[in-house]
UniProtKB/TrEMBL annotation:
UniProt record similarity statement: Belongs to the LemA family.
Organism expressing this protein natively: Ottowia beijingensis
Keywords: Membrane, Transmembrane, Transmembrane helix
Coiled coil location: none
Subcellular locations according to the entry: Membrane
Name of the protein this chain belongs to: LemA family protein
Transmembrane portions of the chain: none
Pfam families: LemA
PANTHER family, A to Z: PROTEIN LEMA
GO CC list: membrane
Keyword Membrane attributed: yes
UniProt KW Zinc-finger keyword: no
Membrane topology: Single-pass membrane protein
Length: 194
């Protein structure tokens, strides 16, 4: 009887200490995801600030035209870029508040794609050929900003995948489910060069 009780308590203690270790590992992995996003966030903020700085002076403070007012092609291209940059700023703020949130990361990726599309449209439709700086120089700087974020995006995605694998593996999945660890989103297409 004494032997069974000793084995029971030893097994219970082993299980308890294993659960504490598994929990601490999941917390470390989640923290690594948050830290990796903080570094990526800095680079994305640089992209956003740079794009907003390229907007015409009149657009930097807010809306350029009243609703329903006709716009020429150039103003419309800048207005699309302004709207896309505002949308990206909102998505970035949401992702910053919850860097583990899957829908938040998906929203960030979609907003970045909209910003890239609006940027290409603004360069094509609104920057005259004799502009200083030229469209090629603006595009070159934009591509440099995108490429600078590639290793940061990879580091974030790697951290998120390691965390997601850890919360999915049995028996750590039991601890993850018990303490509410949710899968992290990734930024798969964000900042790929085009």
């Amino acid at each position: 009887m004494f032997s069974f009780s000793l084995w029971f308590w030893a097994l219970l203690a082993l299980l308890f200490f294993w659960a504490i270790g598994a929990y601490n590992r999941l917390v470390r992995l989640r923290s690594a995801v948050v830290k990796a996003f903080a570094v990526l966030d800095e680079q994305l903020v640089r992209q956003l600030v740079w794009v907003q700085g390229c907007l015409p002076e009149a657009m930097r403070g807010g809306a350029v035209t009243a609703p329903g007012e006709l716009q020429d092609e150039v103003t419309a291209a800048w207005a699309r870029l302004h709207a896309a940059s505002e949308q990206f700023a909102v998505a970035l703020a949401q992702a910053r508040a919850q860097p583990i949130d899957v829908p938040g990361m998906a929203s960030l990726v979609m907003a970045h794609e909209a910003l890239r599309t609006a940027w290409a449209s603004a360069l094509a439709d609104a920057v005259p050929p004799d502009a200083v700086p030229s469209a090629e120089r603006l595009q070159s700087r934009w591509m440099r900003l995108l490429h600078q974020s590639l290793p940061l995006r990879t580091a974030f995605n790697d951290a998120a995948q390691a965390y997601n694998q850890a919360i999915a593996q049995f028996p750590a999945a039991v601890v993850a489910r018990l303490f509410g660890f949710r899968p992290a989103g990734t930024v798969t297409r964000l900042a790929e060069g085009r």
